[in-house]
Write a structure and sequence with these properties.
With 298 residues, the chain is an alpha/beta fold. Helix content is 30%, strand content 23%. The chain contains seven helices and twelve strands. Strand 9 and strand 10 form a beta hairpin. Bound molecules: flavin mononucleotide.
Length: 298
Amino acid sequence: MQQVLALLGSPRKLGNSELIAKEISRHIPESHRLLLIRLPQMEIRPCRACYTCLFDTCPQQDDFLGILEALIESDALILVAPTYLLSANASVKKLVDRGLSFYPYFEQLWGKPAVAVAVAGIPGMEGFTKLCLESAVRLMGGQLKASEVVYGALPGEVFMNHENRQVAKTLARALFGPSPDLQEIPWRCPACGGDTFRFLSPDQVRCMTCSSPGKAQISEGRISFAVHPPEDHFFLTLEGARRHLDWLRGMKQRFLQKKKELKAICLDYRKEGKWLQGRMNEENRRVTGAESIKEDSP
Ligand SMILES: Cc1cc2nc3c(=O)[nH]c(=O)nc-3n(C[C@H](O)[C@H](O)[C@H](O)COP(=O)(O)O)c2cc1C
């Protein structure tokens, strides 16, 4: 029996994200067990940029490694998150920020099938939530089979629109189905299937999902993208990801070589400005009436 992991970026119990994930699960044709993780409930501490995870396990004692284990042990992933202020709920980014820890496990994670759903309350106001989720899947080594945006604000509202049940069904079938033909849709990135591009000039673009550079071209009023991923692109092949891990590990050596020079640059900025601290302090109430941050003591 397959194991499907649903990572939910919503704090709401029985909210739209949870319902969508469960509706997808109901329609997955393959026999499977559904495991769910509500990311905002998990303790995922900020990455400390120590790079220990590239050589050993992350030293932070929180829920991250448990989530990573669940991901490794699962056969497929459903990632669903609500839009918060035009982006995915921050719990998704908190997970992804710890993502250097994924690299040493890419042999187990690579190519895991995944579908992603961005939920937004206001039609058209999903911002870059879908992009965030697609990137998250890629950064976890997953193979994105399909992704969608659905609208609904109140808990459950997403299924007041019957079409969204159909969306869930389509995603369910896609999860263990064949890989999408990336060349089929000309207005998507032919390297990764992404549909968000940054224009670097009137015709030069970069895919915001896989970072491949390319050209936008218009023929007979239709736009298409000719993208040329770098040869050892670390998002597109496991071999590229392995090479990127080696490159990242090599940073330690490069740092040691240039340590003196780097230190001199940094220390030049040591004394500027006054730091404010996030410590809450009753005496310090100012504008909002809330306990405000205070100045760092020298
Ligand atoms: C703090 C906050 C910010 C939100 N920002 C947006 C937004 O920028 N665009 C949007 O369309 N919906 C926004 N919403 C609405 C949610 O995306 C919507 O209610 C969604 O259905 C919540 O999914 P859930 O039930 O899975 O939590 C916001 C909701 C909250 C609580």
